[in-house]
Write a structure and sequence with these properties.
GO terms for molecular function: DNA binding; sigma factor activity. This protein has 191 residues and is mostly helical. It has 10 helices and no strands. The chain has 2 domains: 108 residues, Orthogonal Bundle (Rna Polymerase Sigma Factor, Chain: A), CATH 1.10.1740.10; 83 residues, Arc Repressor Mutant, subunit A (Orthogonal Bundle), CATH 1.10.10.10.
């Protein structure tokens, strides 16, 4: 995964150049789609990750005139928009009386790529461990593990240093590892 479109391309798109706008949206769509798939999965009936990624791209298009290059990659800007769009989709589903009955209180445990690898029983045991992590640590794991971003790319997106991202990832994985080990110890019968 690269760092998104070049700043010059983004500047031309911001100025209204249609070809540059198309190229920027083409460049950010794969990131938006992967992010939406990881965050949404099958949790919202009638809402697909593809539709939501399209919403993200439309929101990027609407926000482009207000974009200011502050030395961070453009994907950091796209990430903030994607986070907001996913949250908006969950809020909208909660307000829809028909969907509210269908939407679980928590996201479906089989939504993300890393979660799909786990069986339902495993996920029921792992979810409490994931919930012990801070939202920032879960986001770092999502970007690094599920989306395959490098520490540098993740750092640019979340506004931290690459070293901080690596430390957060290391600590989050250590927390998951120790919690899993404790669960295994408690599940093994003592004779």
């Amino acid at each position: 995964m690269g760092e998104g479109p070049e700043p010059e391309l983004v500047a031309r798109a911001k100025a209204g150049d249609r070809t540059s706008i198309d190229r920027v949206l083409t460049a950010v769509h794969p990131f938006a789609l992967r992010y939406c798939r990881a965050r949404l999965g099958h949790a919202l009936p009638g809402v697909t990750a593809e539709d939501l990624a399209q919403q993200v791209c439309l929101a990027v298009l609407r926000a482009l005139p207000r974009y200011e290059d502050r030395g961070r990659p453009f994907l950091a800007f796209v990430h903030r928009i994607a986070v907001r769009e996913v949250a908006d989709a969950y809020r909208a589903a909660a307000r829809d009386p028909l969907l509210a009955e269908l939407v679980p209180d928590r996201p479906d445990p089989d939504v993300g790529p890393e979660e799909r690898a786990l069986t339902g029983d495993d996920m029921r045991r792992v979810r409490p461990l994931l919930n012990r992590l801070t939202p920032a640590a879960r986001e770092v794991l999502l970007l690094r593990v599920a989306l395959g971003m490098s520490a540098e790319e993740t750092a640019a997106v979340v506004g931290r240093s690459p070293g901080s991202v690596r430390t957060m990832q290391h600590r989050a994985l250590a927390t998951l590892r120790s919690g899993a080990a404790a669960m295994v110890r408690s599940a093994v019968p003592q004779y």
